[in-house]
Fold these 4 entries.
Entry 1:
Amino acid sequence: MKESGEKRIIRIHVGQERINMKDLVVYFSLEGNTQYVAERIKEQTGADLLRLVPKKAYHDKGFAKFFWGGKSAVMAEKPALEEISIDLDVYDRIIFGFPVWASNYAPPLRTFIEIYKDRLKDMEFAAYACQSGSGAEKAFIKLANTIGIDHFDHSEIFIDPKAKTNDDTEKQIERFCEWLKGEPQELLPEERLQEIVEEIQEGEPSSDIRYSLNVDGILLDLEQEKPSPSFHDTLLKLINEKKMTNVEFYKKAWIDRKLFSAIKNNANYKPKKETAIACCLGLQLSLSEADSLLETAGYSLSRSQNRDRVIRYCISHKIFKIEQVNQILYEVGEECLGC
């Protein structure tokens, strides 16, 4: 058992990758307001920034700014952009930022979405808009429709944040960033953790039992047995039965979007045991459901191995938060999931 003062490792890795939500702010800024917010988001959350720059610059002053910018938005133009060098596979969420033009989003975002639309599947989206007047709500709806989603997970409206910066604006940006960073991990109270450890340690591990094998009979049974569903098919069926979106699932399982896409797009995908267990926890399966899913990947949770016994205990007692499972594993001296 670990001493109470030691740092507990609660993050999961799948393969060699650290599972940690990574954000990209994709924005267009004409007068600096949208960029002002983008830079604050980077400072407070660590998100990466991608500024969209049209090859032909928009007018930024006087009547021409409103006329040509509004016309471009209303006509749903797709202006050519300066070269973009970005690997979207390393991001789980995109935060779109734009100025509001004629109750619409700025056209450079339309070009970006057109270029990368196939790469935006199974991603999460948030958005913020900067305006002097009104129209942001309609702009959010139009942008969501262009992406092909029902709505944004979160959206925020700022009133000229650079030009009219004040304490209220800064607090609004901070609240937006706090939402983006998400809720802190929920660990088990120390007293409950010790109770769980004692319950696990009191259980007697099952011994391995050897049987004499009827090889001919086994071969005959194998020939008559129908092939079991694949891990790929079983996983996607369970996600549907649990009425979860793909994004909800891989977030709960702490699996990154790139890995989930690899599983979803390969009917013969063979996951590592770590990944298969993470899927069981993310789906909040019963023990029998978990055993069935693991079996499709060629794995099981052994009663004679202490680490597997901890996983079985957690699933049986509906402890599905991976940070809590790792907390228990660490406490009993077992390797955390994915470490």
Note: Residues 185 and 323 are 7 Å apart (CA to CA).
Entry 2:
Amino acid sequence: MLLNEYQEKAMKTAIYPNKGDNIMYPLLGLVNECGEVAGALKKASRDDGNIITPDRKKKMVGEIGDVLWYVAAMGSELGIRLDEAVRGERFCDINESKFIESSLLFEKTIQCVVLSLQAEAARVTEMFVYAAYYGRDKTYFQEMSKEDGVAATRLGNVIMLLSDVAILLDTTLEEIAKSNLNKLDSRAARGVLKGDGGER
């Protein structure tokens, strides 16, 4: 599956206020869903002795798909294609990311990769919060993305870290993306795209 194919299909399910001119909605969603990934891992530590049970893995895979959806939405809001963010066209292009190699210092623990995901999401947030604080609008973000590529790079880093978490869960980001699209298609068919809860 192509990254841009995922982005295009995912955005067909996007329902939020001022879609196309609302960077804050996907930004808040990104932060929220990264927290959900960390929360699932925290519960594995508290309840299961750091063992990721099949049920916990299923939950984490779903949350990773949700993070990817919000990255796609942010990219769409900023005019950034996902292939530009990771400098590759296919999900398999990112399966061997630099982050998993550099995590040797931390023994490749999933906890460290998830914390790195949180940190990178915070960097994305910080970039937009400062710009918004100083009265910058969406045009500024788009220009910033094209001029120095920092927004695309940050989104690409989040995607790479998602891929690393997927690998550590014995799956791939491509499989997670396909599962995410299937979930969204099912919700669309049942008319329940809007709402709360993963079981709708």
Note: The first helix runs from residue 3 to 11.
Entry 3:
Amino acid sequence: MFNNLQIMYAIINDKSKYLFEPPEYYPLNISTEGRQLKQLFGKDVLVRYGNVGDEWLWHLHMKVNDVCNAKCPFCIESENPIIKYDEDKYLKMAEKVLNEQYNAGILFSTSITGGEPLLFGKLDELLTITDKFNLFLTINTNGHYIKKNINVLNRHKIDFLNISMHSHIPSENNAVMGIKPLSIDELSWIKSNFNGLIRIQCVMMKGGVDTYDKMLEFMNYYKDIAYDFSFRNLIGVNESISESINKFTNEHRIDFRSILDEVYQNGELVVQEIQDYYIYETWNLNGFSTTFSYSNMDILLKSESIEDVHISREFILHPDSVYSSSWDKNNKLKIIYKQP
């Protein structure tokens, strides 16, 4: 079906129109149609129009560090050198960036991620800044520093803590993350004491959650903890970035499509969103709102290499306080913090 698809973006709410093939099959069709011109820091950017459901495209990823206590072999942070960035500079740039996107009318939500973001030393101050904008805010974490930071977290508006668990079987989870997984008792304490909601997120891979039935076991195991669930296919990286991560990904990637076929048979579709290089789906499944995401980084790299440089599909504030509209901070819009 994707073989003849001539769109790079779509929102599908009707199950009868659901698209089955994964994103690597659809052709590149770079276009500036459906985009509006905005200015950020005096530079032109082309972003999607704000139709209902498009708000997620007006998202800021705040990547606060490259440091993590876990050693997930599919994650680039596992190979990054430990660099101490200037956190005060990051705070100043964060406020500038939030103001720019807010004033441009393209700020709906933000996620704080890393590394392990709860290792960011100025988390309280950063959240004080995000509070000013009343954003939908999530924090991606492995959960090990939540209890230590619970008072800080509860002082601020945080909608979700997205806690990563890659299996409900402790030995499998430990084999992936390289750290002892949080127990049900520890997670129950977090749920009871955190003011927001808990999402359990999982990267599906061989040796972990790798079948539809095992996914249901995973959901049933954490059913008293999670408000909802998120599952993601294993994403590779370019070999020039990391040969070992690419090797692990190729060896552990599962047949994600076959799992989605069973989800289709048993779940109720809420939305399937196709956005250039990834597909993001939400289903009512097993009594929970459950999201599935899968992507093709080669599509993204090819898109960015040939499209209009002003096209911006996401915004990232990197740990070194560089603000860009690409995960490769040397592509697209790039703003470097300057001392006042």
Note: The first strand starts at residue 9 and ends at 12.
Entry 4:
Amino acid sequence: MKAQRSVLQKGKDGKNIAIPINPPVSNLGTPPVSNLGTPPVSNLGTPPVANLGTPPVANLGTPLVNEKMINVNRWKINDTFGYYLVTYTATWCGPCQRAKPHLLKTVEGTQHLGSKEIGRTKRPKHVKFIPWFDVLDSSDKIIESLQSSDPKQITQFIQKYRFVEF
């Protein structure tokens, strides 16, 4: 058996480590490919992983738990077209609380038509996660929905219907 070729490289601890070099591979009928060896590995340990915090999970928000109550608010956001904004949030929902200041700033100057707390029996079936936002027309038909806690997405979503012109 042939001895395997190797290259010496300094490890993290300063000691020399033998890094094996792959021998040339020969296929029948194909001339051997010149192999100058596998380049030395620059990091012999596991590379460090940057700790950037918990990555967002596609803005899923908080799943609704059947026994918990949620808050429903309604704003009239466009008098010309009769658009309403309905929001589904909760005091126990972290993403909802983080989105609340941006939501309130975006609907500032609109008419707040009230709020109520609802349980699982009154909850709309299409609302699976919160915070959830629906834009309704004057006949209460849902035009568009958004499930997000991202302030930029929420602002764009509301302004799209709030500042509609002919």
Note: Residues 62-162 form a domain with the Glutaredoxin fold (CATH 3.40.30).
